[in-house]
Amino acid sequence: TQLLEQSPQFLSIQEGENLTVYCNSSSVFSSLQWYRQEPGEGPVLLVTVVTGGEVKKLKRLTFQFGDARKDSSLHITAAQPGDTGLYLCAGAHDDMRFGAGTRLTVKP
Amino acid sequence: DAGVIQSPRHEVTEMGQEVTLRCKPISGHNSLFWYRQTMMRGLELLIYFNNNVPIDDSGMPEDRFSAKMPNASFSTLKIQPSEPRDSAVYFCASRTWVTQYFGPGTRLTVL
Is the peptide bond preceding residue B81 cis, with omega within 30 degrees of 0? Predict the structure, then answer.
């Protein structure tokens, strides 16, 4: 059983569409991170959220941390083929636990 | 900074052989993590160290796996003897406070 549940598991959309992926847990985290991983590479950190209710924007990506610090969402506006990859969320206690990821494909 | 460095990047070995994976964390980071990633199980935490001390090795699959961190700039993950089911990508990551950075990974294939 995953400590962090990510949904959807797979997502295939057309270029220009918007999308939201979710990361949910029953546990409270001191912080939560989002990563993107491309084939043959290690996960690359996108953002860290620390405060409940926090919203961070990174160009077309918007990250939100739930008020209770148990869940998070990632919204991508006007998706591009370069956004294709595996999106992982990770919650931090003393260690860091990862969700199974959302595999996003953006078709031109 | 060069980031987290892992070696080798690829390793192909035969069942029963000993495998040693190496990691150099980012200088100044006081926590180091070893993960294994497969399509079936995703990214699994194997073990992590704080200030060179192993804190939680509950994710280590079995006694065939061992990890050491003799100093702040080096860690190893050893599998002896290796089995085909150990085939995976092994990642090392280092962390300071809340930010964790991954190495490029070692792709291990056990025949």
Answer: yes
pLDDT at A61: 96
**Measured between CA atoms, how close is B67 to chain A, in angstroms?**
16
Q: Among candidates B16, B30, B22, B26, which has minimal Cα distance to B68?
A: B22
Nearest CA in chain A to B98: A31
Q: Each residue of A36-71: pLDDT tens digit? A: 999 888 999 999 999 999 999 999 999 999 999 999
Distance CA A83, CA A64 (A): 18
Residue B100's pLDDT is what? 85
Residues of chain A positioned with their CB less than 8 A from the CB of B100: 33, 45, 90, 92, 96
CA gap A49, A69 in Å, rounded: 9
